[in-house]
Amino acid sequence: MLHVGINGFGTIGKRVADAVCVQPDMTVAGVAKRSPNFEATIAVDRGYDLFAAGEGGADPFEAAGLDAIGTVGDLVAASDVVVDATPGGVGATNAALYADHDTPAIFQGGETPTVAEVSFVARANYDAAVGADTARVVSCNTTGLSRLFAPLEAAYGIEKARITLVRRGGDPGQTGRGPINDTLPDPVEIPSHHGPDVQTVFPDLAIDTMGMTVPTTQMHTHSVNVTLQSAPDAAAVRELLADESRLFLVPETLGIDGAGKLKEYTRDAGRPRGDVWENCIWAESVTVEGRDLYLFQAIHQEADVVPENIDAVRALSERTASAAQSIRRTDEALGVGEGLVQHGAEPASVEGTADD
Ligand code: NAD
Questions:
Q1: Hey, which of 32, 96, 204, 305 has its CA 20 to 30 A from 254?
Q2: Which atom of ligand 1 is nearest to the CA of 90?
Q3: What is the pLDDT of residues 190-199, one digit of tens each?
Q4: Domain ranges, ordered by start, for the chain
């Protein structure tokens, strides 16, 4: 049984902790938090041992009626592997602590790639993390793109990818983020940072990315054009993608027209927090013209990196499971792919207007 410590119990950390809990080969060694906010009370309610990460030690937690049983150093000492889910840039400042304890560590996409030996997406480069001491689970957008590129590259070869990322303004809990009434080229510079980040996983991939930020908290949406090295028909691409456990081909019959209904669907399906761990690819958007593939996909920024963190734990610390075995184990325990109607029939042609 692997004892997994979680340092940082916010949007990503609390989801990773709950995902660790349901794995048959892992248990939560404890969670470290800086402030005794509502998430600290949830950690205690869930039965996780709470460790203090802030300068005030356990005092602010005790003042809030919460029992912190040690410091973040104690948590690292009690862990076989640590998942660092602190805010972007903070993880790098924790790296020496993990190294001092000789504890393998997993960082998140808000860190620069140099924080770890490997930038990790299970479907793309699991083996590169086996035997490493550190890995960085790449950002939600990079994860979503890499999961899509891995089967396309293997089946057809990729000549060039061009992606426009329509990014959510913030997570639901990030009340200070925006915009609230605008559409921003973000970043204005081209390519956006996403392309180079994908290249930390696929070093030889030719990719251009453009980013925009819009007033939603629901999900990111990607407009994808990939020039392949061969010319499959769209039905073959749909079947290829439908075979991937972390890609959900949204059937036209469900009447899901955007991220709002996707989130509603997964809430109705009983997913914890309404989480969507899979890339959501609109089946009828999958179009091939010559060697050019086009599609739309939505990425739930709070959730898609969660199964990747579980696989990264296994790659760093168990070292016996293959990529396919770890992905299957993670997906079965978490329920990835469950409760969703998979794409089956060929979509009907869609009549549309061009007024927007
Ligand atoms: P968050 O702000 O929701 O949570 C961070 C948690 O860490 C909070 O509980 C905070 O109190 C705690 N914390 C702050 N400083 C700390 C410290 N020094 N030691 C221990 N804990 C500390 O952040 P998040 O959205 O969960 O992001 C965490 C990482 O995951 C970042 O690298 C981010 O870029 C990445 N990520 C975030 C998303 C997303 O959409 N939220 C998606 C993918 C990756």
A1: 305
A2: 18
A3: 999 999 999 9
A4: 2-138+305-334, 140-299
Give the distance (Å) from ligand 1 centre to CA of residue 63. Answer: 23
pLDDT of residue 345: 42
**Domain 140-299, architecture per CATH:** 2-Layer Sandwich (3.30)
Q: 2-138+305-334 belongs to which CATH class?
A: alpha beta
Q: Rounded to whole angstroms, how far apart are CA atoms 263 and 218?
A: 7
Cβ–ligand 1 distance for 141 under 6 Å, the answer no
Whose tokens are 């392949």? That residue is: 228
Average pLDDT over residues 162-184: 97
66 against 355, higher pLDDT: 66
**Ligand 1 center–CA 348 separation, angstroms:** 42
Buried b (16+ CB within 10 A) or exposed e, 2-33: bbbbbbbbbbbbbbbbbbbeebebbebbbbbb
Which tens digits make up the pLDDT trace of 271-284?
999 999 999 999 99
Q: Is the CB of 10 under 6 A from ligand 1?
A: yes
